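wait is this the right file?? whatever heres the structure
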């Protein structure tokens, strides 16, 4: 009984293999027959089987490129728009990919308060990924120290890239041109990081000077750092709108 089952499986595998080989065999065989076929004048037309060639038909050259139906090549996403389109709120297609490179623009639309309005639905903006081994926080960029691993660098960049994309999306939703929205977001994130560092340093210094009896605690750094972060974000966003 087991032997019979084993033979059945073997037969099934053989049948599947034969079926899988049939398309390739047909292609190869058809190509071989086409190349080995005699010249047309020795082939007698058969009613219902062979169709005589149309004398007026154009026969493509043997080396002419052919297109396969259903196979298309997508064009690369647009990375640039004209200044007048940017001013109307049109953004490059790369702005809406999962990630994008640091924008390289030679033009930034001015901030026009008269065009601002209530937030409207706006597609998410792609996060900016800096070059390899580069730390980026908005307008702030620096070479990553050698002791940082690639994962640590990516985590640090992701921590600021997400908020930057959110700020740019919100700015666009209220009528800010995409190029200006990116600048506002980059300046806001840079200001937030600088404000947090300055606030932490000031808070720690004041604690050391005024309360020497108590050891320096991370709570003071976090409290003053958070205050500096908010202030730096607002100042940075304002500067980004005026640059």
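ok assuming it is, sequence goes like this
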């Amino acid at each position: 009984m087991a032997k019979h089952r084993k033979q059945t499986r073997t037969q099934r595998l053989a049948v599947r293999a034969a079926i899988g080989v049939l398309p390739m065999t047909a292609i190869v065989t058809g190509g071989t027959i086409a190349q080995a076929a005699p010249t047309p004048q020795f082939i007698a037309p058969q009613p219902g089987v062979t169709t005589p060639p149309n004398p007026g038909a154009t026969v493509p050259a043997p080396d002419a490129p052919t297109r396969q139906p259903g196979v298309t090549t997508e064009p690369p996403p647009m990375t640039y728009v004209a200044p007048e389109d940017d001013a109307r709120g049109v953004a490059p297609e790369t702005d809406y990919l999962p990630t994008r490179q640091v924008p390289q623009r030679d033009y930034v639309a001015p901030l026009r308060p008269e065009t601002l309005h209530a937030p409207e639905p706006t597609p998410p903006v792609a996060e900016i990924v800096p070059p390899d081994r580069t730390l980026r926080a908005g307008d702030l960029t620096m070479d990553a120290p050698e002791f940082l691993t690639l994962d640590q660098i990516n985590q640090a960049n992701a921590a600021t890239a997400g908020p930057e994309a959110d700020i740019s999306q919100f700015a666009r939703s209220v009528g800010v041109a995409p190029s200006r929205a990116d600048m506002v977001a980059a300046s806001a994130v840079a200001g937030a990081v600088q404000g947090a560092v300055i606030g932490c340093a000031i808070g720690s210094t004041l604690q050391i000077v005024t309360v020497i009896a108590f050891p320096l605690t991370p709570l003071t750094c976090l409290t003053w750092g958070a205050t500096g972060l908010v202030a730096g974000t607002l100042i940075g966003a304002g500067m980004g709108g005026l640059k």
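The helical segments are 2-36, 83-87, 150-173, 178-210, 218-242. so i think its the right one actually
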